Amino acid sequence: MAAAANNRAVVAAAAADDDAPAPASPPSRRTARPPPPQDGPVVVGCGSCGVDYLAAVAAFPKPDEKLRTEALETQGGGNAANALTAAARLGLRPRLVSKVGGDGLADGIAAELRRDGVDDAHVLRASPGTASPFTYIIVDRSGGTRTCIHTPLAEPLRPEELTPELVDRALGGGQGGGQGGQGGGQGGGRSGSSAGGAAAAVAYFDGRMADAAIRLADAARLAGVPVLVEGERPRPGLDALLARADVVCTSAHFPRAWTGEATLGSALAALARRLPRARALVTTLGARGAVMLVRHVEEEEEEEGGKSRASLLPPPPPPEAGGGDGGAVAFLPPGRQEEEGEEQASFPPPRSLDDLIEELQALAARETAAARAAGTPSAAAAAGCNATGTGARVLASVVAATPAPVALAAPASGAEAARAAAESAARAAAMNADAGNARAYADSGGGSGGKGGGGGGGSEDGGVVRATVLFAPAASLPSPEDVVDTTGAGDAFIGSMVYAVARGLPAHRALRLAGVVAAAKCTALGARAGLPLRADVDDVLLR
Predict the structure, then answer these.
(1) Contact 166, 189 (CB under 8 A)
(2) What is the 3-state secondary structure (H, E, C) of 219-271?
(3) Is 99 within 8 Å of 156 (Cβ atoms)?
(4) How many CA atoms lie within 13 A of 252 on its CB side?
(5) β-sheet bridge partners, residue 79
(6) Residue 171 has what DSSP assignment?
(7) pLDDT in tens, 6-55
(8) Angle, CA 199 vertex, CA 193 and CA 200 arms, to 5°
(9) How far apart, in Å, are the Cα atoms of 533 and each of 52, 449, 522?
(10) For a tag on the chain, would you pick the N or C end, based on fewer CB atoms within 10 A?
(11) What pLDDT score was predicted for residue 25?
C-alpha cells in the first residue's frame, strides 16, 4: 500500500530463516553486548543451531562472475537459536534443546549461546569429528535480498536422544549443566542451567527434527506448557507438530504452500480450520507487516492443562470497553450482525479473510500515518526502540483489529488445492536436497490437520472459523539505508512472540513488540548482531 511505502516500512516481519547456524571467529562488538539481567520466565526452544558465514556484496553475482565482499562475518544462527537469543536479550531465561557437531565449531556455538544468556545444557554433541551445521549467506545490498546455502548436521537429533530425564530437565525439573552430548561429545552445557529448576512458561519449536521434537511437545502439553510452533516451509513430520500447537507462527508463503489455497486469506482460514487446537495463528508478511487470527474460545474450552486457553494472546477489548490502548489499536466499524434468533447470532455472516485483511491493512496504514503526523503523539504512538546496528529510532505501528470475533469462510481442500500443496512439498524436498523423500514432505501437508496429537480447541463445522483478526504494519526506520540485512528477521519476530506468550501480553502488543524487534535486527549484518536489548525497547511495548 502507498501509505506503508511512504512510511518506509522495513522488512520487520520477514520469513523465518531457513537454515541452521552460530560462531567460530571472534564476535563483533555488537554481537558481544552482554545480555540484560535475566529475571523473566524460563522458556524452552527446540530446533536448529549452527554457524552462519555472511558475505555482504554490492550485487548478487552472475554465473561465473567473481567479486569481492564488502563485509564478512561469522555468527551464530539457526532458527531456534536465533529466536531464543532474541528472547534472552529481552530478559527471558531460554533453554535450547538441539544438537551440534563433534568439532571445534561446536565449542564456538556453545560459547556464543552462553554469552547471550541462552542455557545450552541440553545441546547435544554428535560423534567426534562430525561437522556442525553451517550456512553460507550472501547478502545483496542493492537487491535487498539474502541467499542461504545450508549444510545440515550429518547426525540429526534422534527421538531416543530426548530421554525422559533430559525432557524433564528442559521443561523444569532439572538442575542444568548436564553431561550434554551423546555419541562421544562433552556436551554443550558447561555453564550450568542459568534458570535452575524453574518451570518453563513456553515451549517453542522451529519445525525441524520433528520426530524428536514431538516428544518434547507432548511432555509440554502434559505439563500445561503452551506450545508455539513455527511453520516456515513443508518439512517431514511438521503436520504432527503443528497439530500440537497452541500458537502457530508462519512465514508469508507457508499457509499457501501447506494448504494449496490460491490466496493468503483463504489459506490462513483453511490453516486455522485444520489446526483446531491453535488459539492463535500469526503470519509474517515481510515489508507489509503481519496478520494474526485469535480464535474465539468457548467457555467450556478455556481450561487446558490447568491453564486458561483464553489467556493466550487475548485480543484487545472492544472500543466500548476502552480497547484502543492509548492509540495503539484502531478498530474496524462493527459489521452487520445476524438477525436475532438465528443460530450464532452474535457473529456476522462468514466473511472473506482476504477482503478483511485489505480493510485492516488500509486502516492500520491510515492510523499509523496520522500518529506519525501528530505534533504531540501519544506514548503508545511514539513507542519503539533504539536500533543496535545504526542507532536509528524504530517506531511501532498502529495495529488494526476487528472489534469482536468474526466468522471467516474457511474452504475445504479440493483437488486443485491438493495438487498445489503436493507441488509445494516436492519443491521443499528438492530445496533440502531430499527429493527422494518427497512423499514425507507431501504427508506434512494440510489435509486432515495433522497426524496424532491434534484435536481439542474447538473445531468449527461448516467451513467457518471464528476469530478476531489483527493486522500490524511493519515497524518503520527513518531511512531505507538503515536496512542492512534481513537475515533472521523472522527469528527475531518469533523470539518476541515467545516473550509475549511467556509474559502474557495481549495480541496487539505482541505484534507491535515483534515488529519493532524484527526491524531493529535488520540494522546490522547477520541474525543476531542487531537484536536489541531490553533496555533499548520502550517499556510500554514490553508489558
Answers:
(1) no
(2) HHHHCCCCEEEEECCCCCCHHHHHCCCCEEEECCCHHHHHHCCCCHHHHHHHH
(3) yes
(4) 14
(5) none
(6) I
(7) 333 433 333 333 333 333 333 443 445 666 677 899 999 999 999 999 99
(8) 90
(9) 21, 38, 14
(10) C
(11) 39
Q: What are phi and psi of 496, to 5 degrees?
A: -70, -35
Can you tell me which residue has the cell 567426534? 128
Q: Which amino acid is at 2?
A: A
What is the sign, positive or negative, of the torsion defined by CA atoms of 179, 182, 184, 188?
negative
CA distance 269 to 291: 12
Question: Residue 513 corresponds to which cell in the numbers above?
Answer: 513488540
Question: Which residue type does 155 have?
Answer: E
Cross-strand partners of 216 = none
Helices 353-373 & 264-274, crossing angle to 10 degrees? 110
* pLDDT single digits (tens) 176-215: 333 344 333 333 333 334 445 789 999 999 999 999 999 9
* Sequence letter at residue 244: R
Q: Kindly report the average pLDDT of the chain as a whole number.
A: 82
Task: Quote the CA–CA distance of 517 and 514 in Å, as a whole number.
Answer: 5
Give one DSSP letter per residue of 297-312, joined into a string: --GGG-EETTEEGGGS
Letter for the amino acid at 476? S
Model confidence, pTM:
0.85
Q: What is the mean pLDDT of residues 160-166?
A: 95
